[in-house]
């Protein structure tokens, strides 16, 4: 009987414990049901962003400057892959994984969060893709993805204009977060870092789509539940002419320097060269350290966009503007002449500001002062005008100000004033500093872009357009083209007579007797220009600059500004050749060849023509794609980018 | 003639209990099929396990308890020696010394002890039933402590605790005084902190800590508990339906045909299914306890009772573990989990219960 009693007690205890279990089940399955249901759904469903294809960048003739192509990458999600080293070792038995791939992966791993998938190998071959597909089951957390890759077919020619995209880093992420755009970049690994790619990032990127997929515990998609398709980014058409750009590049030869060509009728940037360039394709998936060092440490500074960030004394190219200032401000009359002894001295001083011609130019009026580039004329003019009036007048042409071109990183140069000097050096302005400013030396600093803009203002009789790279865009949603309207920055009030006089003088510069007569020989159009030479090192009193005795990197920079045809200008060019020596002999011929090509379609030479990759590229432009936007100009400004409504 | 043969064959089986067991086994086939991802091979192998186990049950039900009793002492002694052998010459697998290498095959003597220990104790009490005194419990306790000590040292905490339980059930049913039970419980409770610090291995401590806060190690030890709790909870009242549990079929559940099969069942059949399963288990336990209580011999009563309560313990510990209230120990859900050994031992146990209940009272020898 005792045993039966114990059995009953045991049975009752078991029943009570089962009741406890039932209570636990009820707690989980009824009270907490919503919570666990959500967790299970979370397990099951992942929202996979579908990154949009990035917009294509074309030149004015629809030559491709930046485009995408598809290829397979192998990606690892570290959180799901188990032991990374072992996984990579095993993978390397199937596909080739170099030490560079491993290094890049480690770098990405250090920068990323664990649940992101990171590429271990890009551009899988077909055979490798097939081999991985067969072995896929062995690698949880490893996936093969079809990815879009960015490519710059014309390489270094457009490195400074088109720029490049690179992997999104923490800083980019912070920026995107501040702008509320982070959601639209889920699934995007790249962002514009430089040039057009950076400036028009919001338009080029497009809107990210979303795929709702059911996944298993290995993170593999089992089934597609729903899909919001991505919307491609805008295609962008630039004013640039790829062929002109390559002509300009080729005529530079081995020189370093910059060339800016503008369309004076609307401010469109026809060419923007900064030599040397670099291959932007290197940067897209992370540049390797050796290449980076080579670029960054090179004394040629290929990473600097000289057209926008190179600041140089304008030298004698400032003279047409100074001459015009003298007339407009009433400091000089057109007929006023000086007798040039070869130097200028301030009253009561024995210091001689020397002309480049030792014995002087004799009798010089305004027109002649530009044609033969007389320094003495401008020493006196500048002294009489004073720095304040000079600075105020020249600023209207854009000296000392950013041009506002649609690229980042432009430098403003410097148009000095006494206030500036006081603030900067705590020193008063000395009259001698005005004197040398009159020939574009001393504190005056300009970028090649500023020189081009100022020359455009002159060519346009005072109308200054904002330089613009973008010419048109195509909205992928409706396929319609929009056009960028020219933007007038300034309309300088100028006496047409005075402008005509200065322009005539600039035409004479390229004629026999002018400083650029050799470069200007036999032009079938009116070629207006002005040479300039900017000192790199100071020459002491009583010494002369002798080209042959100066180390190559200390030689003068050669400058040339030009527009043509002078009576109805269609192109404005500013050239700066680093350590090129004389403007007339080095810089002017470059401008001439660029203008020849633009106005006459004349290529510099047969051999050079063959090097033009753009020529070949232009022929590959598909007719149906579109034969470049038409001439008319409609839309006032770029519409807001697609990413206004951001997906979850 | 044939009918008589059949009747003879099943003469020692208990109808209601067999019915309940078959119902549970049918359920297990359905769950294993779903858990294995419609793996036909797995189901065939599971069915053959069930077949073997049923035949074994049938055979053992014909062995009278007195015959079984004769084996109790020798099996126990052999078991203890084997455990001693393990401690001296055992093979270390996964950090535990549990196996004994016997040339062609390896054996795990602790498995033998699961049945040998309660049999030994039941035999002891049966042997001493006329002259039973308080010190007999002490001696029985020592008989139990010897193999348990060996097994705990391997270390195999789960098995040693379960054998302790099965031995304790014999003592309890044998009439162990409540005072001693309370005393031992008090001592054990106060010794818990000491055991925590000095007796448990790191991984054992970790399992307990993981139970308290699974989120502390979501991809490591906590993963099993987190995923199985999600599976149970997301089953809701009615369940997601057979073969469509997302946790199961998308591979989130670990060990889902074996130790964690209850999560599959619970996800697919919900609270209603769980209630049904608990009631089925309760019915089996109730019926077999009733059979045990009615067994003619003391040995039969004690051994059957211990077997039934151990069966309950397995079921309770497994479901508690899967639903996240008990630490993860390698205990299958009896008669549901895939796996031949567990199936065989549990069905042998029920065969003994039926045998003990249906054989006539033995003449004292």
Helix and strand arrangement:
The complex is a heterodimer of chains A (648) and B (365).
Chain A: H1 2-31, H2 33-44, E1 45-50, E2 57-58, E3 64-76, H3 78-81, H4 84-91, H5 99-111, E4 118-121, H6 126-135, E5 142-151, E6 165-167, H7 170-178, E7 190-192, H8 195-199, H9 201-205, E8 209-215, E9 221-228, E10 235-238, H10 242-252, E11 257-263, E12 268-275, H11 289-297, H12 306-309, H13 319-328, E13 337-340, E14 343-344, E15 353-354, E16 362-365, H14 366-371, H15 375-385, H16 387-395, H17 418-425, H18 431-437, H19 448-459, E17 463-465, E18 470-474, E19 481-483, E20 488-491, H20 496-509, E21 528-534, E22 557-564, E23 571-577, H21 583-600, H22 606-611, H23 613-619
Parallel strand pairs in A: 2-10
Antiparallel strand pairs in A: 1-8, 2-3, 3-4, 3-5, 6-7, 8-9, 10-18, 11-12, 11-23, 13-16, 14-15, 17-20, 18-19, 21-22, 22-23
Chain B: H1 2-9, H2 15-35, H3 40-61, H4 65-89, E1 91-93, E2 96-102, E3 105-107, H5 109-127, H6 134-153, H7 157-173, H8 178-199, H9 202-212, H10 222-235, H11 246-249, H12 261-293, H13 298-322, H14 340-358
Antiparallel strand pairs in B: 1-2, 2-3
Helix pairs in contact in B: 2-3, 2-12, 3-14, 4-5, 4-6, 5-6, 5-7, 5-13, 6-7, 7-13, 10-12, 12-13, 12-14, 13-14
Provide keyphrases for this structure.
heterodimer, A: 648 residues, alpha+beta, Penicillin-binding protein 2a (Domain 2), Beta-lactamase, seven-stranded mixed sheet, five-stranded antiparallel sheet, 23 strands, elongated, disordered C terminus, B: 365 residues, mainly alpha, three-stranded antiparallel sheet, 14 helices, 71% helix, 4% strand, globular
Structure summarized in a few sentences:
The complex is a heterodimer of chains A (648) and B (365). Chain A is an alpha+beta fold and 648 residues long.
Task: Characterize the structure shown.
The complex is a heterodimer of chains A (648) and B (365). With 648 residues, chain A is of the alpha+beta class. Helices cover 35% and strands 19% of the residues of chain A. The longest helix of chain A is centred in the N-terminal third of the chain and has 30 residues, at 2-31. The N and C termini of chain A lie far apart (71 Å). The relative contact order of chain A is 0.12. In chain A, the strands form 7 sheets. In chain A, strands 2, 3, 4, 5, 10, 18 and 19 form a 7-stranded mixed β-sheet that branches. In chain A, strands 12-11-23-22-21 form a 5-stranded antiparallel β-sheet. In chain A, helix 10 packs antiparallel against helix 21 (583-600), helix 13 (319-328) runs antiparallel to helix 20 and helix 15 crosses helix 18. Chain B has one domain (2-358). The mean pLDDT of chain B is 87. Chain B has 365 residues and is mostly helical. In chain B, helix 4 (65-89) crosses helix 6 and helix 5 (109-127) runs parallel beside helix 7 (157-173). At the A-B interface, helix 1 and helix 2 of A face helix 7, helix 10, helix 12 and helix 13 of B.
């Amino acid at each position: 009987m005792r045993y039966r009693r114990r059995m009953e007690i045991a049975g009752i205890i078991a029943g009570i414990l089962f009741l406890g279990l039932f209570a636990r089940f009820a707690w989980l399955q009824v009270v907490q049901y919503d919570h666990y249901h959500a967790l299970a759904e979370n397990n099951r469903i992942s929202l996979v962003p579908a990154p949009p294809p990035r917009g294509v960048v074309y030149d004015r003739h629809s030559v491709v400057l930046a485009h995408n192509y598809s290829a397979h990458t192998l990606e690892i999600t570290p959180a799901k892959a188990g032991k990374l080293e072992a996984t990579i070792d095993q993978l390397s038995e199937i596909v080739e994984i170099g030490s560079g791939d491993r290094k890049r992966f480690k770098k990405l791993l250090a920068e990323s969060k664990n649940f992101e998938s990171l590429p271990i190998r890009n551009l899988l071959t077909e055979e490798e893709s097939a081999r991985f597909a067969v072995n896929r089951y062995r690698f949880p957390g490893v996936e093969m993805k079809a990815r879009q890759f960015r490519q710059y077919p014309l390489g270094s020619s457009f490195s400074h204009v088109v720029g490049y995209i690179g992997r999104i880093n923490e800083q980019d992420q912070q920026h995107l977060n501040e702008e509320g755009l982070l959601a639209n970049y889920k699934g995007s690994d790249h962002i514009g870092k430089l040039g057009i790619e950076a400036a028009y990032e919001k338009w080029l990127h497009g809107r990210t789509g979303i795929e709702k997929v059911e996944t298993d515990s290995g993170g593999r998609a089992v089934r597609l539940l729903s899909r919001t398709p991505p919307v491609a980014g805008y295609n962008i058409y630039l004013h640039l002419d790829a062929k002109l750009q390559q002509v300009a590049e080729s005529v530079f030869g081995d020189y370093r320097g910059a060339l800016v060509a503008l369309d004076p009728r609307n401010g469109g940037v026809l060419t923007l060269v900064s030599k040397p360039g670099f291959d932007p394709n290197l940067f897209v998936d992370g540049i390797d350290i050796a290449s980076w060092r080579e670029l960054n440490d090179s004394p040629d500074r290929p990473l600097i966009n000289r057209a926008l960030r190179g600041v140089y004394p304008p030298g004698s190219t400032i003279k047409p503007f100074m001459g015009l200032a003298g007339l407009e401000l009433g400091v000089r009359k057109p007929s006023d002449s000086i007798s040039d002894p070869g130097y200028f001295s301030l009253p009561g001083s024995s210091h001689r500001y020397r002309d480049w011609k030792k014995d002087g130019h004799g009798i010089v009026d305004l027109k002649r002062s530009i044609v033969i580039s007389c320094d003495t004329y401008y020493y006196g003019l500048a002294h009489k005008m004073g720095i304040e009036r000079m600075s105020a007048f020249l600023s209207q042409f854009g000296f000392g100000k950013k041009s506002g071109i649609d690229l980042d990183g432009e430098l403003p140069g410097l148009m000095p004033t006494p206030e500036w000097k006081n603030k900067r050096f705590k020193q008063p302005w000395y009259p001698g500093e005005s004197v040398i400013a009159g020939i574009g030396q001393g504190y005056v600093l300009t970028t090649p872009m500023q020189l081009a803009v100022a020359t455009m203002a002159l060519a346009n009789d005072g109308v200054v357009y904002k330089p613009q790279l973008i010419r048109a865009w195509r909205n992928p949603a409706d396929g319609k083209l929009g056009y960028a309207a020219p933007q007038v920055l300034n309309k300088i009030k100028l006496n047409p007579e005075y402008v005509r006089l200065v322009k005539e003088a600039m035409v004479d510069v390229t004629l026999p007797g002018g400083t650029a007569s050799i470069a200007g020989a036999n032009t079938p159009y009116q070629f207006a220009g002005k040479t300039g030479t900017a000192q790199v090192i100071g020459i002491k009193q009583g010494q002369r600059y002798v080209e042959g005795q100066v180390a190559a990197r200390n030689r003068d920079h050669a400058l040339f500004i030009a527009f043509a045809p002078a009576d109805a200008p269609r192109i404005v060019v500013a050239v700066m050749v680093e350590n090129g020596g004389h403007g007339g002999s080095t810089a002017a011929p470059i401008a001439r060849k660029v203008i020849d090509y633009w106005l006459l379609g004349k290529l510099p030479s047969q051999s050079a023509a063959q090097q033009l990759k753009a020529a070949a590229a232009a022929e590959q432009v598909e007719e149906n794609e579109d034969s470049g936007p038409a001439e008319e100009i409609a839309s006032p400004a770029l519409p807001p980018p697609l990413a206004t409504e951001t997906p979850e | 003639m044939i009918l008589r043969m059949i009747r003879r064959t099943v003469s020692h089986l208990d109808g209601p209990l067999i019915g309940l067991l078959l119902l549970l086994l049918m359920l297990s086939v359905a769950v294993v099929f779903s858990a294995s991802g419609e793996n036909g091979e797995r189901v065939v192998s599971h069915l053959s396990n069930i077949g073997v186990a049923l035949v074994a049950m049938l055979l053992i039900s014909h062995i009278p308890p007195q015959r079984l009793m004769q084996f109790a002492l020798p099996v126990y002694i052999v078991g203890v020696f084997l455990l001693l052998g393990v401690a001296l010459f055992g093979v270390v697998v996964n950090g535990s010394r549990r196996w004994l290498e016997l040339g062609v095959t390896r054996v795990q003597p602790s498995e033998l002890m699961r049945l040998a220990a309660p049999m030994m104790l039941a035999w002891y009490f049966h042997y001493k039933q006329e002259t039973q005194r308080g010190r007999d419990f002490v001696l029985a306790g020592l008989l139990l402590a010897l193999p348990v000590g060996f097994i705990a040292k391997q270390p195999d905490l789960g098995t040693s605790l379960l054998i302790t339980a099965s031995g304790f059930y014999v003592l309890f049913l044998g009439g162990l005084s409540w005072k001693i039970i309370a005393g031992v419980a008090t001592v054990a409770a106060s010794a818990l902190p000491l055991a925590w610090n000095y007796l448990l291995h790191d991984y054992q401590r970790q399992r307990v800590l993981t139970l308290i806060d699974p989120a502390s190690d979501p991809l490591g030890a906590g993963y099993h508990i987190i995923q199985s709790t999600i599976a149970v909870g997301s089953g809701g009242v009615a369940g997601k339906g057979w073969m469509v549990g997302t946790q199961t079929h998308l591979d989130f559940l670990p060990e889902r045909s074996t130790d964690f099969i209850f999560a599959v069942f619970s996800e697919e059949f919900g609270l209603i299914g769980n209630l049904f399963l608990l009631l089925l288990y309760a019915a089996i336990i109730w019926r077999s306890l009733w059979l045990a209580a009615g067994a003619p011999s003391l040995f039969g009563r004690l051994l059957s009772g211990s077997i039934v309560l151990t069966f309950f313990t397995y079921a309770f510990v497994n479901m508690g573990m899967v639903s996240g209230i008990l630490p993860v120990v390698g205990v299958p859900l009896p008669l549901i989990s895939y796996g031949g050994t567990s199936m065989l031992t549990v069905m042998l146990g029920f065969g003994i219960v039926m045998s003990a209940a249906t054989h006539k009272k033995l003449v004292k020898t």
